Amino acid sequence: MTVAAHKAEDIAPGQDVLDAAREQVLERGVGLSEQQVLAVLRLGDDRIQELLALAHDVRMRWCGPEVEVEGIVSVKTGGCPEDCHFCSQSGRFPTPVRAAWLDIPGLVEAARQTAETGATEFCIVAAVRGPDKRLMSQVREGIRAIEDAGIDIQIACSLGMLTQDQVNELVEMGVHRYNHNLETARSHFPEVVTTHSWEERWETLRMVREAGMEVCCGGIVGMGETEEQRAEFAVQLAELGPHEVPMNFLIPQPGTPYEDYEVVDGKDALRIVAAFRLAMPRTMLRFAGGRELTLGDLGAEQGMLGGINAIIVGNYLTNLGRPASRDLEMLDELSMPIKALNDTL
Amino acid sequence: MPDRYCAWCGHPESEGEHATCRRRLASIDPPRYCPECARRMVVQVTPSGWTARCSRHGESASAPSVG
């Protein structure tokens, strides 16, 4: 595996990073370098509104006004053998989450609930290192049942690390997008996960892309990473070039090593959203878990006007989100149209 | 025997401080412990709700979503 160094765009002496970003990102569509992202993350509170406005302009110019809406569900909860320190589903930590499997009728109902919101994406998620035959069979049966029920929605999956045969099998099932988060900067990953490597995750992403599935890859901020590592992560994602980047903010989960971590400050979260948009002008940037704690209702709106162009509605895997209706009302009030299914095919 | 247990932390409602528990339950967390006996429940979160099953006291569910 190789991760090429991101092309360095220098900030000229005395040049303001937002002035540079206007010319480089807004006009030319070239993402910020690591050094530039770091400069954005260090902007003072008095520059946040200017930053968000620029990130919004970049999103509108290179992605357009549509917002992609997605729902997710966990088909296999808890009991995971991995030790991702943020995760309540790891079997290695004394968390209150017990193992559970969602049956096929439950999966179909979850897809129906998601489609009724106007979402075009439904992601089937399992807490595993990688799928075994039982899980692959469950996913195959579930996708078939969703199709047989006439639910018009695109299926994505997030089943951990894959073999080439499993990648091929998912393509054959009609899975059009695969989520596998790198979670954090390569330099910080060993502090977050010790049971597998960042490079192993990258390898799954490589196979997914080569097989023709869309790559969905993001992470979680607030896991003890430095500002420098946030900038590093942004350019590593840009290097990967995923179709979609889900942005999560840490929800401290009881029983995990991160249970006492502070929630990310709202202003920092907005700076991060905008900085990631400026690093990846053409990528779908999705609000995912943790925004309810970190940003609240007002902050969510500011994020939508600061570079975000996709959103998970409803509940998450083990945590609850805002009711989908509130997010849809927010999009309506912001005059942001929901991306139609026809636009995604 | 306590009368009720906190559905978030599993400790007796009558002991200690549960403001954080209530805040989390009101915003981002489903119940994880049975309020009757403090057993950990099997919880399934779905896009519009949750179910929680206690091996002794049966299943509870979120209120039907509106809209």
List descriptors:
heterodimer, A: 345 residues, alpha/beta, TIM Barrel, ten-stranded mixed beta sheet, 14 helices, 13% strand, globular, disordered N terminus, B: 67 residues, alpha+beta, three-stranded antiparallel beta sheet, 13% helix
Largest Cβ-defined interface: A-B, 33 and 22 residues
Mean pLDDT of chain B: 93
Helix content of chain A: 40-55%
Name the CATH homologous superfamily of chain A.
Aldolase class I
Estimated structural class of chain B: alpha+beta
- Summed up, the helix count of chain A is 14
Distance between the termini of chain A: 31 Å
Number of domains of chain B: 1
Count of separate structural domains of chain A = 1
If classified by CATH, what would the architecture of chain A be?
A: Alpha-Beta Barrel
Morphology of chain A: globular
Q: What topology does this entry show?
A:
The complex is a heterodimer of chains A (345) and B (67).
Chain A: H1 17-27, H2 34-41, H3 48-62, E1 68-77, E2 100-101, H4 104-116, E3 121-126, H5 133-148, E4 154-158, H6 164-173, E5 177-179, H7 189-192, H8 198-210, E6 214-216, E7 219-221, H9 227-240, E8 244-249, H10 266-279, E9 284-287, H11 291-294, H12 296-304, E10 310-312, H13 324-333, H14 341-344
Parallel strand pairs in A: 1-3, 1-10, 3-4, 4-5, 5-6, 7-8, 8-9, 9-10
Antiparallel strand pairs in A: 1-2
Chain B: H1 19-27, E1 42-46, E2 49-54, E3 58-61
What this model shows, in words?
- Chain A contains 14 helices and 10 strands.
- Chain A is α/β, with parallel strands linked by helices.
- In chain A, strands 1, 2, 3, 4, 5, 6, 7, 8, 9 and 10 form a 10-stranded mixed β-sheet that branches.
- In chain A, strand 4 (154-158), helix 6 (164-173) and strand 5 (177-179) form a beta-alpha-beta unit.
- The two termini of chain A are 31 Å apart.
- Residues 1-7 of chain A have low confidence and may be disordered.
- Chain B has 67 residues and is an alpha+beta fold.
- Chain B has one domain.
- Chain B is 13% helix and 22% strand.
- Chain B has a 3-stranded antiparallel β-sheet with strand order 1-2-3, with no helix packed on it.
- Chains A and B meet through strand 1 and helix 4 of A and strand 1 of B.
